[in-house]
Write a structure and sequence with these properties.
This protein has 9 helices and 14 strands. By secondary structure, the protein is an alpha/beta fold. The protein has a domain of about 210 residues: Rossmann fold (3-Layer(aba) Sandwich), CATH 3.40.50. The strands form 5 sheets. The chain has a 6-stranded parallel sheet, sandwiched between helices. A two-stranded antiparallel ribbon has the order 3-4. The two termini are about 35 Å apart. The structure holds NADPH dihydro-nicotinamide-adenine-dinucleotide phosphate.
Length: about 300
Amino acid sequence: MKILLLGKDGQVGWELQRALLVLGEVVALSRHPASTPYGTLSGDLADLAGLRAAIGAVAPDVIVNAAAYTAVDKAETERELAHTVNALASQVMAEEAKRLDALLVHYSTDYVFDGTGTSAWKESDAVSPVNYYGDTKLQGEQLIVASGCKHLIFRTSWVYAARGNNFAKTMLRLAREKQTLNIIADQIGVPTSAELLADVAVLAVQKTLANPALCGIYHLAPTGETSWHAYATYVIEFARHNGETLAVEAINPIATTEYPTPARRPLNSRLDTQKLCKAFSLQLPDWKVGVTRMLMETLNK
Ligand code: NDP
């Protein structure tokens, strides 16, 4: 089997480079041109013609897209680029997947929902993004579905990895530098490891190739829930318990309204994963399992 991976150096892309190898030949691209057995190819999602040419040259059985414009606040002003990368490039991948009869694996976000209420969002719930990033990710999903290609779209939340920048690492850095931290306590969600996303993708690809009726949109996150404040407290207490010298003395809970950002964030990011677990006979771990593993890796460096 031939797999084309786009966005190989992101948090999820990096883990996918490892995980996908068990399925077959992996051609992994970033935005920079690279020499491959199929010629010099670029996986720049802002270059739609180049992207189409790269997919055509590889002619993969599976396209996995881990690339995205993920700068949520910057997307409010850099609209054209965010739209091209998150929406139009997804359309190109979907059209090419349809033409090649390939399976397209794509990642989306809980930010397609408006964050109201306290229930976990189901795949069938009404979408209504509150920021432009969420809007472009939703458009990407809709263009993929409309193309009629075989697809797996995983909506996830609060992604982290040992490699790359993320909230937990930022908290560790700030805890070393500052005595007081003010952290948002009224946004609720589930931290999701890039490792889990990659491992589930491999399993889902295998099962979907054998049974294309499994194609669709799925919510994917570990079990449990937390707030940014409780997440930060867990990370910092774990680090301190493991002998890290930290300056922080107080971790104060604050409201979203006390920390204005260019892009609005949904308050309720909970995702209901029953559809995924049932379709792929999966059992998902508690969110603390992956965060603890990542902390052990990060702190022991
Ligand atoms: P990262 O920001 O870690 O990685 C995104 C990757 O996309 C980077 O390697 C980046 O490359 C690449 N990229 C950006 N623009 C382009 C471009 N024009 N052409 C090619 N590559 C480009 O994101 P994650 O791994 O965390 O996200 C993976 C997926 O999960 C995305 O679809 C995202 O929307 C989704 N998601 C992420 C969440 C999160 O909390 N991070 C939450 C919910 C969903 P470069 O470094 O060169 O810019």
